[in-house]
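<instruction>
Derive structure tokens from the sequence
<entry> Chain with its tokenised backbone below:
===
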Amino acid sequence: MRREAFAGLAGALLVIPQAITFAYLAGVAPEHGCTVLFSVGNPGEFVRQSPMMGGPNTAVAILLGVTVLPFAGRGSPLYTELVLTLSLMVG
């Protein structure tokens, strides 16, 4: 039990800053990065049909931001809505 708790803490210390950085690269608020982090990881714990677990990565974050930028100004509510909608479609 103690090893699992330590592994979970170590994983969180590595993944949370990464999720915040991905949100910054996509051009949305850091809170959205943490939301995506937990919404991707938790359902995967219950499904586990594939040995490969996907999640956000640098290339997807940059491409989301670049794709949405012509349609809405960075930081606007429409921009955030489009990035979140597109990320759900891609994921």
Observations:
- The first helix runs from residue 2 to 26.
- The two ends are 32 Å apart (CA to CA).
